[in-house]
Design a protein that fits this description.
- The protein has 378 residues and is α/β, with parallel strands linked by helices.
- The protein folds into two domains: 226 residues, Response regulator (Rossmann fold), CATH 3.40.50.2300; 127 residues, 3-Layer(aba) Sandwich (Rossmann fold), CATH 3.40.50.
- It contains twelve helices and 14 strands.
- The strands form three sheets. A seven-stranded mixed sheet has the order 7-6-8-9-10-13-14, with helices on both faces. The protein has a five-stranded parallel sheet with strand order 2-1-3-4-5, sandwiched between helices. Strands 11-12 form a two-stranded antiparallel ribbon.
- Strand 9, helix 9 and strand 10 form a beta-alpha-beta unit.
- The longest helix is centred in the first third of the chain and has 20 residues.
């Protein structure tokens, strides 16, 4: 068994350990139990594993220091394989188990499947790992977003390309609500310049069947391809397009899973660009990054810094501040009020600005580039 498989298995055990120990919230009044549905298996597993790990690192450190308002926070995670039907069933179970809030769901189609249950139960739904506009508009009282939107990310990507004089831009996207959200963002950013994608190719969720997309996109001769998918499909598309002779630029939105994409591509990752919505998990230039890196080191060898883990960590930190403000006898309603009171607040270099009518914490986006040795350059 090679080291990467050992590390993956260790991380899965790490993520599953807390879930196995969790009990219904009503049975443990001294604890605040959060529910999470995320992919811990399948082609998108690293997105869920890494997001979960970052959050769990934060909550474990929090609990070791006495918790929040004297109560520990427990994160119960159920695998959904990045499939909407499984996520919906998981959400139904978590709500029936009376978890206090839902946290850190992963993916647009899965979040959309959970949303009707969230709204019916009026349960806080915090920090989903998605930037889709459909989850942000219309405004929903119980739904809070920590990250910037896909519209923010695609606008930055398009502006970067057009500032370099690149006007022939194609889109490769997952054929579901996530991919459509990214495609819409690209179209919105191109339209004021009188431009539109020169070609569009799709891939099914949890699939790497990219042959037709490669043929359709390379035939149009774009200078750049914006990818809106998960890491396995995007990596496959990059390799197959290059085999077909394509020599242009590839750019991805953050949900691709930066480290997972780098791991999939190996040396072929050189020059691939990814938009980021979190501070760097590798730099020590911000207080939140230094805090995160210190927490990762203390968590043991199974924990590795990466952007998806950083997002879980930051989301957990912001939620904990909302819980602190909700008070010792926190209710779901007081949590919502507590979160809404986090206005123009600096979390060590990551600024959060909620309000009673704005549940999108941040517009922070910047571009990064992968290197052939698996690193990320800002």
């Amino acid at each position: 068994m090679n080291n990467s498989i050992k590390r993956r298995d260790a991380i899965k055990r790490f993520a599953a350990a807390g879930a196995a120990m969790a009990m219904p919230a009503l049975a443990q009044p001294a604890r605040i139990v959060l529910g999470q549905s995320a992919p811990l298996s399948g082609p998108a597993e690293q997105l869920g594993i890494q997001m979960n790990q970052g959050a769990r690192i934060y909550f474990d450190a929090l609990n070791a220091s006495g918790g929040v308002n004297g109560r520990n926070v427990e994160l119960r995670t159920i695998d959904d394989g990045y499939e909407p039907e499984r996520c919906q069933a998981n959400t139904d179970k978590l709500i029936k188990d009376d978890v206090f809030a839902l946290f850190g769901y992963v993916g647009t189609p899965t979040c959309m499947a959970a949303l009707p249950l969230v709204e019916a139960a009026k349960i806080p739904f915090f920090g989903p790992f998605t930037g889709a506009e459909v989850l942000r508009t219309p405004f929903r009282k119980t739904v809070f977003h920590v990250r910037a939107s896909y519209f923010d990310e695609t606008a930055l990507i398009v502006n970067h390309l057009t500032s370099l004089g690149i006007r022939k831009i194609a889109v490769f996207h997952q054929n579901d609500a996530y991919g459509q959200a990214g495609l819409e963002g690209v179209r919105n950013a191109l339209k004021p310049m009188g431009l539109a994608p020169v070609a569009i190719g799709t891939v099914e969720r949890n699939s790497v069947d990219v042959a037709k997309a490669v043929k359709d996109i390379t035939a149009a001769g774009p200078a750049a391809v914006i990818q809106v998918g998960a890491y396995k499909a995007c990596a496959t598309f990059i390799r197959e397009a290059r085999k077909a002779g394509y020599g242009g630029t590839f750019l991805n939105v953050s949900f691709v899973g930066t480290q997972a994409l780098a791991d999939e591509l190996g040396k072929d990752a050189r020059g691939i660009m990814v938009s980021q919505v979190m501070p760097s998990p590798f730099s020590t230039s911000t207080a939140i990054s230094r805090e995160y890196l210190d927490a990762v080191r203390k968590a043991g060898p199974a924990a590795k810094p990466n952007f998806s883990s950083m997002e879980g960590y930051v989301a957990a930190k912001v939620l904990t501040e909302g819980l602190r403000r909700a008070g010792r006898t926190a209710t779901r309603e007081s949590l919502i009020t507590g979160l809404e009171s986090i206005q123009n607040t600096d979390f060590g270099g990551f600024h959060v600005d909620f309000s009673a009518r704005n549940h999108k914490a941040s517009n922070y986006v910047e571009l990064s580039m992968l290197t052939e040795d698996g690193k990320v350059r800002r």
